[in-house]
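Let us walk through a complete example step by step. Step one is to write down the protein sequence. Step two is to encode the small molecule, manganese (II) ion, as a SMILES string so that its atoms and bonds are unambiguous. Step three, shown after the inputs, is the structure prediction itself.
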Amino acid sequence: VDPQAAIARALTSSDHTLIVCHVNPDGDCVGTALALAGALGRLGRRATVGSAEGVPAALRFLPGAGDVVSVARDDLAWDVAVTMECTTLDRAGAFESAVRGARTIVAIDHHAERPAYAHHTYWDPGAAAVGEQVTALIAHLGVDLDRAMAVNLLTALVTDTGVFRYVNTTPRALRLAASLIEAGGSIPDIVEAVYERQPPSSVRLLGAALVATTLHTGGAVAATVITPAMIADVGAGPGETSGIASVLRTIDGVRMAMTFEQRADTVRVSIRSRYGARADEVARALGGGGHLAAAGAESRLPLDDVVRIALEFASREAGRTAAAS
Ligand SMILES: [Mn+2]
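Step three: the predicted structure of the complex.
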C-alpha cells in the first residue's frame, strides 16, 4: 500500500490532528510539522503542532511557531496523531500518551530505523529531511505551497543538510530547494535566522568546549565534556550546545566527534561522523539513535561510563573505517 495515499486519506477525514515534534527539536521536525499543519488548515482541517520541549529560539522565526503547544491537553481526543522523526514513541516526550490515545497514529521518518508503532508509517531513509517527504504528502493532499509552507519546508531542508553540505544533499533535495525558493523561501534569510543570530553565550560556550577537546585513537576521535560549570560561566541556556560536535568534526583526520553535556540527571550525547563511521552505532550503544553521520543519545548512566562506552564504540568505528579506506 502507498503510505502517502493512506496518510492523505486519514488526514483529510480528521477533524483534529495532532502533529508532534521529537524531543530536542530541530529545524526539520519543527519546520515540517508547521508546514503540514498549514496545509491541513488550507483544507479547513484543524491541526495542532506539539513539541514537548517547545521551539528553540533560533527557530521562532518560522511561520506559525507561536502556535506550537508544549503541553498536551488530555481533555482533547485526537482523530489522528502524526509523529515527526520519532523512531520510537518515547521521542515524543510528554506527548507520548496523547499520541497513543489518538484513533489513528501516523509516523513520518527518515532515520535509519523504521518506526514500528504506527497504523501508517511513511519511512524513507533516502529522504534528505522529513520536509522532503511532507512536501510530497502536501502535493498528494492537493494543496499548493504558500510562502509560509515554503519557508518552513526550506528550513527543514537547509538545517538537515547542514546548508547543503552533507552527503544527503542529493539532486532531489536541490530540486526541491529550488521549488521552495520559487514558492517564497529564501536560503540566506533562513541561514541568518538559524545560524547567525546567536547569543554571545553560545559562541563563548563553543570556545570553552573547543579548548577542552581531547583527541583519541590516533586523532580519529574527538570528544569534549560540557559541564554545568562551563554552561554557568558563560550564562548559556538549554540547547546552546547544539552544533559543537560538527565543529569538532572539522579537525583533519577526525572520523567521529562527540560532545557530552552533563545535565541534572542525564548526559546528553551528540555525535557527528564521516568517512562511513557510523554515528548511530555509537548512539545505540547508549540507548539513542539517529543517522549514519549524525546521531545522539541521552543516558542516565554516570558521565564516566557514558564517555567510556562512547569512546569504545567510536574507536571501533573509526578503526573499522580507517582499515577499509
Ligand atoms: Mn530530519
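Step four is interpretation. The chain is about 40% helix and 15% strand.
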